[in-house]
Amino acid sequence: xxxxxxxxxxxxxxxxxxxxxxxxxxxxxxxxxxxxxxxxxxxxxxxxxxxxxxxxxxxxxxxxxxxxxxxxxxxxxxxxxxxxxxxxxxxxxxxxxxxxxxxxxxxxxxxxxxxxxxxxxxxxxxxxxxxxxxxxxxxxxxxxxxxxxxxxxxxxxxxxxxxxxxxxxxxxxxxxxxxxxxxxxxxxxxxxxxxxxxxxxxxxxxxxxxxxxxxxxxxxxxxxxxxxxxxxxxxxxxxxxxxxxxxxxxxxxxxxxxxxxxxxxxxxxxxxxxxxxxxxxxxxxxxxxxxxxxxxxxxxxxxxxxxxxxxxxxxxxxxxxxxxxxxxxxxxxxxxxxxxxxxxxxxxxxxxxxxxxxxxxxxxxxxxxxxxxxxxxxxxxxxxxxxxxxxxxxxxxxxxxxxxxxxxxxxxxxxxxxxxxxxxxxxxxxxxxxxxxxxxxxxxxxxxxxxxxxxxxxxxxxxxxxxxxxxxxxxxxxxxxxxxxxxxxxxxxxxxxxxxxxxxxxxxxxxxxxxxxxxxxxxxxxxxxxxxxxxxxxxxxxxxxxxxxxxxxxxxxxxxxxxxxxxxxxxxxxxxxxxxxxxxxxxxxxxxxxxxxxxxxxxxxxxxxxxxxxxxxxxxxxxxxxxxxxxxxxxxxxxxxxxxxx
Length: 646
Hints:
mainly alpha
């Protein structure tokens, strides 16, 4: 970890510090061993998924209670007694499952005093760990669901039900199939772990620097170059990190000052970085933990999710890129100075080793259709192999341990969040909310699919304002997606719809974490930065409503229909960008902006008639602006010539 990362954790020295570092290193290594089936192949020991997950959670909880202080005033130079108590009891509750799960399977439905006590321990420990790594919002949401499960008889109408006894509730959250050791945390402990490791190795060996340099070399020379660099670099880096805020902090400290020096206002520079970084969560081939959960919920390969998400993600970045370019043209911004633009040839010559693992990843996912965690492992292995081919890129053992340690700390947030979301998913199932809440949403929408989509989008954005993307997506996936399915929405489209709005909550005021992080780097007003980021990301708020009814945008259908839909929708996104910036070839008046915006929306809609009408309007306005610009240029030329002759 670097110094900035160390600042938020309690890092010990001496033997305790050594144990803490070993624990952080061991967390990803446990996952590697399980993914590669090493206990079985090397030791002949068969390990069930629940046993491995319980061991993973034990290590994660121990690391949280060692390294994450309970509050700002908690001691950082010693390990307080209450954290030792939490760590020990949490480990005991988890290790009991590791040691006895094969026997526990035979009596999962039987409640005993020991199970109740251990269930209470794991519940308290996971909730406290959640409060420390994710804040109070998610913790309170889980407490509400627990309260409901225990006192469901106090609720009216469709929420009324038979309450669970404490013994049954604690037994279920502890050992239930969909609870704390269920499929949600299993994804975090396998697939997400593998991609976090891939990201750490790629970034730790200089991959992030390579991506920024490559973006500078490709885009830096053009008008508004620094902003285009931010769009490309943040999109590439976001695919690896999977975290919008981490992406902003990592790349924004480079791209935002560059944009400001070129002439972009601070709020616009921050908005560009926030919008581009947030897009990493929806951009294949690596889309973050939520996308892996989606594959699990749908029971399909992750490659199918990535393929479906590709076109909407390209449209998202197209909208941002065009607005950035038009803003630069409108105010006359130039590219980077030649001295600041790295040579593409030299960048590729020095950084080709980072391209190899990305190619391996894409090939393993989309061609070989390997499980996502195996594809990530092969990518890490390929990086380590190609790094040895050049002396200057060889990775020392100390560096490997440092990257493993970084992966361990990075896994804390995701692992704990997935564990606590497992509580919610399990309680929603056991209380019957999985059936009653979707039905209630359908009734609230009056059976109207458009109203239901607006409700789902609004609730997801509001819920996501205080939750990680993984948590808000998972909660809405079990609440809203079944409601959409009842009205005939294709399941994959419904899940992607929820994912999009969970991601967009990170740039939507009043709580826009990615936008606020970018605003702090840029020294800009937070709310203004957030709303500008929403404008830049306008396609992400419109396209999901379209792919719900138009499968070709999710790469479903014939090649002709997919290509045609992409082209027309892309033109619509460009038209919207022109309308928002008020510029085509010159400044636009209000009427032209209104017509252009309306035409853009018509082109995004899936009906052919509306698309053709929109296309005619867009073509007419662009042609008219071209003629007017030519006329103005001719007048200026003639006046200049007359002055010269005079």
